[in-house]
Amino acid sequence: MNARTILFDRHVTAKARMVDFGGWDMPVQYDGIIAEHNRVRTHVGMFDTCHMDAFLITGDLNRVVSQDLKTLAVGACRYGFLLNDDGGIIDDQICYRLGEDDWMMVVNATTAPSDFAWVSKYVDAKDLRDTQSKIDVQGPNAIAEATRILGFDLSDLKRFRWKRSGKCIISRTGYTGEDGIEIYAPHATIASIWDTLMAHGIQPCGLGARDTLRLEAGLPLYGHEFDTTTSPAEANTLRYAAKADDFIGKPAMLERARNLTEQLVAFKLDGRQSARNGQPVKRDEATIGRVTSGSYCPTIAAAVGFAYVQPRYAVLGTTFSIDNGRTLLAATVVEAPFYRKK
Amino acid sequence: MIRYTKEHEWVNIEGATATVGISHHAQEALGDITFVELPTVGKVLKAGAQLGVVESVKAASDIYSPISGTVSEVNSSLDSAPELINQSPEAKGWICKLTNITATDVSQLMDEATYQAYLG
Questions:
Q1: A151 has pLDDT over 80
Q2: Which of B25, B28, B32, B76 to substitute to test the interface with A, most A CBs within 10 Å?
Q3: In CATH, what number does B2-105 get?
């Protein structure tokens, strides 16, 4: 049987459509992906992200992750990677500096077990799976609504900062391209916060909207844009692996940057028809790459996506076709993000 | 006379022409529809042949012709407003019209009561 979050019964009661997501029963949509997407862009929505995992870590983590932890203040958090010795991406993660030598590392759901095994080789880590859950509240009104309904004082909480409130850790972070927060707390506290938000009219959003929101905002997704065969060099994310200090995978990553075999690009299709993960990218019959994500995105009203292509085609304005098995869809390499909040 | 297929298309036969679309159940299962690939006018279709594609945010789904006939008209308003299929699957969200239809194909299809029972 699939794993269930503390909020599973609530999703069923709310008549969400449930799907398997990496071994978890998760809501893909409640009242409709586009309505949920638009709600986050224009007002506020909340997401069950309890399937994600977090580790409490004590010790010198700087060598294990790609982001610079030396310059990270207590009260701040920073995005980066766990790389293997070949420079391949084990996962993307966010490290929260809880104290001088105390960290919380937040990781993806499907990669959590392998992340934990990897991290535990180098530092003392404790998996919070059994004790902690998380929800995201996202949208231009997320801060105001969370303040009003939950009584959080978020007035001084800047982007990529966190603070404690009661049993919660609240960070001004998210995965939608909008303002918002992520709330970490014990399972029962998260369930009660969810109920309070629901009772005050905050509507839940599913993984479907989470995917269109993150894609539109140009945010990569592990398992699509990243996996152990790609490094930050190919994924155009070297800025999250740019610290002066050495870290695991750095030499291999830099070597790969000097000899790129493929590069991640953002593309926009000419029509409304979507390209999908795995479809070949072609130019004059020859396959030059592969699509990693693709969807119609509601706010920009266009079909967009990401693809890995041979480096010489990774140039803005380059045109190519995507073979969906029936037709060749015309696409152009464009700048990401596709959408930027006002 | 409206009839349904097991693949959740509907066909409404009025004399010598037929209108084709997807059922309420189909649009609900697909979710928000973002693109419709319409057939070409003049295309001759056999019953069960692929007629077009309907794409939602998450998936693409092939549409099959419930009966044999020739495409005489397509609902081009779906090009700019594919959401018409969600809003009105069995009226404004029609996909195409067929002429030269083969009436004997209809006996293979379900009437509304049978289709509802099929949906369970």
A1: yes
A2: B32
A3: 2.40.50.100
